[in-house]
Design brief:
By secondary structure, the chain is mainly α. Helices cover 83% and strands 0% of the residues. The radius of gyration is 16 Å and the shape is globular.
């Protein structure tokens, strides 16, 4: 397995675990900051629509760039910032902005991540390496979800989002420290 594949898989595990931490308690969090179920749905929708639209747009910019790994790094940093901001905002309107930022971060990460993975995947072992990714993100998100629910019950949403931010920063650091391997 190529070193870039290992870096990408580990970064994805950190990021997916981080997102899994708050996914099952998201609606309760939105209520805590004064929103309702419609705010939870709308804010999550903002994240996904922004991600979808900007992934299509940014992929054109990223394709021509010699610094694609920089988009990957910056995307993880923005994801960490969004996670941190979840812990300090206190209105649904602020939440919409944070979810916009989160969508932007994943739009920066996803096309580049997929391109690098496709570039460095071992052609004879492609199914296994993609299986590691597919299985890994599901396991990381699932374990994160279980831990997040328990964690927020014992501690706080602020601490939960700080942990999520830290994990995204670890993903960014991993990419940054290995950036020369990507080319």
């Amino acid at each position: 397995m190529h070193r870039v594949i290992k870096v990408l898989l580990l970064a994805a595990l950190f990021a997916n675990f981080a997102e899994g931490l708050y996914t099952p308690v998201y609606a309760a969090y939105v209520e805590r900051i004064g929103g309702g179920l419609s705010d939870a749905g709308l804010s999550w929708s903002i994240n996904l629509v922004v991600f979808g639209v900007l992934a299509m747009v940014l992929s054109h910019v990223e394709t021509g760039s010699k610094r694609r790994v920089g988009y990957l790094f910056l995307g993880y940093v923005l994801s960490a910032l969004a996670s941190f901001l979840f812990g300090v905002i206190n209105t649904p309107t602020m939440l919409y902005f944070v979810q916009f930022l989160r969508g932007l971060s994943w739009a920066m990460i996803s096309p580049v991540w997929d391109a690098f993975f496709s570039l460095y995947v071992n052609r004879r072992n492609a199914t296994v390496e993609w299986g590691y990714y597919e299985g890994g993100w599901s396991i990381a998100t699932g374990v994160g979800s279980a831990i997040g629910g328990i964690f927020v019950t014992i501690f706080s949403f602020q601490l939960l989002f700080s942990l999520s931010a830290l994990l995204n920063l670890l993903a960014a650091l991993l990419v940054f420290l290995n950036r020369r391997e990507f080319y």
